[in-house]
Amino acid sequence: MSDAPRKDPATLRSARWFAPDDLRSSGHRSRTMQMGYAPEEWMGKPIIAILNTWSDANPCHAHFKHRVEDVKRGILQAGGFPLELPALSLSESYVKPTTMLYRNMLAMEAEELLRSHPVDGAVLMGGCDKTTPGLVMGALSMGLPMIYLPAGPMLRGNYRGQYLGSGSDAWKFWDDRRAGLMSAQEWTEAEGGIARSYGHCMTMGTASTMTAIAEAMGLTLPGASSIPAPDANHIRMASAVGRRIVEMVHEDLTPNRIVTAAAVGNAVAVAMATGCSTNAVVHLVAMARRAGVPLTLDDLDAASRHVPVLANIRPTGTQYLMEDFYYAGGLRALMAKMGDKLDLTAMTVSGQPLGDTLAGARCYNDDVIRGLDNPIYREGSLAVLKGNLAPDGAVIKPAACDPRFHRHEGPALVFDSYPEMKAAVEDEDLDITPDHVMVLRGAGPQGGPGMPEWGMLPMPKALLKQGHRDMLRLSDARMSGTSYGACVLHVAPESHVGGPLALLRTGDIVRLDLPARRLDMLVDEAELARRRAAWTPPAAKTGRGYGWMFARHVAQADSGADFDFLTTDFGPPVAEPDI
Ligand code: FES
Ligand code: MG
């Protein structure tokens, strides 16, 4: 410790609040003493914000109520002073219409909490889907030294001796229940077995994908994202995070030295190799742009052709869950197998380049974490489609859908609202064939609003009864990272703003050509022009409040669905507050 860099206390950001011999600073000191702290406990020390997304409504973060004490322990040990600041919890399970409506709100909150408080660095505690991108986006924009503490996955589900995966098995069982293959009693038993500890979803859903991305970007301690939430290693990691952030403040290790183009490239490559959630697309673009790295859908598609899926984790993989991934060596083992797909010179919060943090990483199960010569899927997890239905792009997860849909042509069955679609899929006499393309629109960033996870449209009962379990589905919505099936998502521009999806009619032929990355409706230009001339924009969804602001400022899915006024190049940098 003795030769470690130490900042002159007078140069700490928090000194602006506490050091001056004036009335305002006296108030800050007096109010800190009001909380029971003597001046020597904080004066001249790095003050560390802990942005904690714990709440009673977020089972994925239930342990954060206590785990934050381990972070504080680490901060105190290293000579810092912790300030826990609660932030929006964004529980994927409860928040409607979708947490995505509030990701940018959390990003704004994270940025402004850090800006407005007397802090020198930050620990970000998140994990449930949108909390990772929300916290990281905000903290990137603020620019203080920061480190991400992932919640960790929950234990594997267990039902009648089978391992259950979050989300994925619920969808599967629900189709069985609707097909009359599962009783109400069995269903209740499965409900009690699928989520049986705190921690985030333990499939390679959005949560596991985004925490892996945070680690690959260099924002977590090495290996942190794979540790199951209830494992004692997670507690030790939390205190190590506390110790490390204090050192980062002394080293001035700010996120602009970490989240570079190289780090973003690593995050994209790791996303592909994990068999990531489709949601990763929107969040990666948004996070990269906050760091000033102009990532596009084309970059993601190029990476997908170049990096195979190595993690054999459901839903893309066949068998395993995050707990197995951890025991097999976790993300460090996976990255060690990625060879030249990663830029090992990228800096990390540990103060070491990525390559050094992977030294000694070993894989203990080559079936769970595959090598480049034996991948789960020879291309990456996602493909980006373009065509007259999606001029700005759409996303599909080829590895998670039946390959017979990779090239498909069929008549559209179009729904303009979720309730309308829901009623139709329950109709046992619905006039539909397995070749049909089910379409839901009005579910994009503005239409949803917030791009709800409606994109894995339920299979129509009429087809389930005939034994069909997949069909081509198309929407401007997102889908849960734990979903699967031939679902084309994130169609941009969305129908609500007049994207060509708005012009599609039931009976039109839709053509998907995945190898060519094309998505088209076979309707001629003159007819489309007629339909466009007759199209009228739908009414705004919200007339006041946050939803009103959201609709005016949210970008389309292909540019990350951030708010226009939050992007890095919007206006001059925000000045430090006057004190
Ligand atoms: Fe929180 Fe899935 S519900 S991660
Ligand atoms: Mg999810």
From TrEMBL:
GO molecular function: dihydroxy-acid dehydratase activity; iron-sulfur cluster binding; metal ion binding
Organism: Orrella dioscoreae
Domain of life assignment: Bacteria
High-level lineage: Bacteria, Pseudomonadati, Pseudomonadota, Betaproteobacteria, Burkholderiales
Record-linked Pfam families: ILV_EDD_C, ILVD_EDD_N
Domain Dihydroxy-acid/6-phosphogluconate dehydratase N-terminal: 45-356
InterPro entries: Dihydro-acid_dehy_C, DiOHA_6PGluconate_deHydtase_CS, ILV_EDD_C, ILV_EDD_N, IlvD/EDD_N, Sugar_Degrad_Dehydratases
Name of this protein: Dihydroxy-acid dehydratase
E.C. no: 4.2.1.9
Key words of the record: Iron, Iron-sulfur, Lyase, Metal-binding
Similarity comment: family membership: Belongs to the IlvD/Edd family.
Gene3D superfamilies referenced in this protein's UniProt entry, alphabetically: IlvD/EDD C-terminal domain-like
Sequence ranges assigned to domain Dihydroxy-acid/6-phosphogluconate dehydratase C-terminal in this UniProt record: 367-561
